[in-house]
């Protein structure tokens, strides 16, 4: 089987697994947010060569981050320092768990990809 077909099948399997896992949390997030998270994790899977288990874990982490930030937004006034602190703490927790879920090689690939994406936006 050629590499393109393997890559496509791998992405399809990961996407299906992620969609299935999100069904349980679907009541907590909007369809648009769910699609964004799935899209992000699919791109990360390609760039970082994530296993299906890693992709599932990251999907859950991103969903949890979204939910916690949504709760923080409800609990604190928009633009307040309390909201900023809560979101910063949520992101720190996400980043620590993310770093534990992937290898150093995968993290390096992700950082390179993210810096390339930021450069594209500036151009």
UniProtKB/TrEMBL annotation:
The keyword Signal applies. Keywords: Signal. Residues 1-26 form the signal peptide. This is Zinc resistance-associated protein. It comes from Endozoicomonas elysicola.
């Amino acid at each position: 089987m050629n590499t393109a077909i393997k890559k496509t099948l791998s992405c399809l399997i990961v996407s299906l697994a992620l969609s299935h896992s999100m069904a349980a949390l679907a009541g907590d997030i909007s369809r648009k947010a769910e699609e964004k998270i799935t899209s992000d994790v699919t791109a990360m899977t390609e760039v970082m060569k994530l296993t299906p288990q890693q992709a599932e874990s990251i999907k859950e982490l991103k969903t949890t981050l979204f939910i916690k930030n949504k709760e923080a937004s409800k609990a604190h006034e928009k633009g307040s320092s309390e909201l900023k602190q809560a979101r910063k703490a949520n992101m720190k927790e996400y980043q620590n768990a993310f770093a534990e879920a992937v290898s150093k090689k995968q993290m390096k690939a992700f950082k390179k990809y993210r810096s390339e994406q930021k450069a594209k936006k500036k151009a």
